[in-house]
Write a structure and sequence with these properties.
- The protein is of the alpha/beta class.
- Helices cover about 30% and strands about 20% of the residues.
- It has 10 helices and 13 strands.
- Strands 5-4-3-2-8 form a 5-stranded mixed sheet. Strands 10, 11, 12 and 13 form a 4-stranded antiparallel sheet that branches. The protein has a two-stranded antiparallel sheet with strand order 1-9.
- The longest helix is centred in the middle third of the chain and has 16 residues.
- It is elongated and about 75 Å long.
Length: about 290
């Protein structure tokens, strides 16, 4: 895995022993608390879901790690501190924080912004105000998972995390201090598969199809969008669980994905070796590739 680190000042230059801080990218409720319990003195959460903010806060309080966690708000750039909770109906609630989150969501809806970006400059100022005098070495970690991204395509989640990390690294706060992106480096893998059922699902009805209970259904072909183009994404789990999808090759690493590195592409031919699936691949057609991070 390639390591990319941007550092402008060293711990010695800042003076004293540095603490460990981490920025968590993605809509995951458990990771911030886990990192706080593992020794990070400061955990800043950059999620994009209002509901996730409430979950992060609740999990942090239940596990006694709320003092180390700050939740960044997109539109205001403020850092919310998980606070003491009062229990009602089995849920942890903070009326003031809930009201702030609801008002933020309502303003976004009124302005026609379903997924507004962070106000990076305000967030940078908030970080400077709270941590500007501290000696902290910053890391970045990602689940990555976002509630509003498609479930079947992990790359879209990583792309969102990459966007947020690049914007964050460009802020004045992190331009001066640097942030390590090594934990956010992922690899794109691929494996060939065969699925006659999936292939047939995207084909038009055959021209010699017999009537179904006396009804000719071939007219629906006029509405058929034709087979999908290259790069089409589909959830294959239903086919895999039914045994209707089989692997035709071993997996291969296609590309290293570093969020702070320039965009790259695959510029060489990658060969997929049948490996232990050689006998199956010789008898069946390869219909596509499974990609994952």
């Amino acid at each position: 895995t390639t390591t990319t680190t941007t550092t402008t000042t060293t711990t010695a230059e800042r003076g004293g022993a540095a603490q460990r801080g981490v920025v968590v990218l993605g809509d995951g409720a458990a990771l911030p608390t886990l990192l706080a319990s593992e020794g990070y003195s400061t955990v800043v959460v950059l999620g994009r879901s209002l509901f996730n903010s409430r979950l992060v806060e609740a999990v942090a309080v239940v596990n006694g790690q709320h003092r180390a966690i700050r939740i960044a708000q997109r539109k205001t750039g403020k850092l919310l501190k998980p606070s003491k909770k009062r229990r009602r109906c089995g849920q942890y609630l903070d009326a003031e924080a809930d009201l702030r989150l609801m008002e933020e969501g309502e303003r976004s809806d009124e302005e026609g912004m379903e997924d507004p970006d962070f106000d990076w400059q305000k967030l940078s100022k908030a970080l400077e105000k709270e941590f500007g005098q501290d000696s902290i070495d910053w890391d970045a970690l990602a689940e990555p998972w976002y509630n509003d991204q498609p479930e079947e395509w992990a790359l879209s989640h990583w792309t969102m995390a990459s966007h947020d990390l690049r914007c964050l690294a460009a802020t004045p706060f992190f331009q001066r201090r640097g942030i390590c992106s090594k934990p956010c480096t992922f690899a794109l893998h691929a494996v060939a598969f065969s699925s006659q059922m999936l292939w047939e699902r995207y084909q038009p009805l055959p021209s010699d199809l017999e009537p179904w209970f006396g009804i000719d259904l071939r007219a629906v072909n006029d509405l058929h969008p034709e087979p999908p183009d290259e790069g089409h994404s589909v959830d294959v789990w239903p086919f895999l669980s039914k045994g209707a999808l089989k692997l035709c090759s071993g997996d291969v690493k296609l590309l290293e994905l570093d969020p702070l590195a320039p965009a790259s592409c695959i510029d060489t031919i990658v060969t997929l070796d049948a490996g232990p699936n050689a006998s199956f691949s010789q008898r069946h057609c390869c219909h596509g590739l499974l990609l994952w991070l």
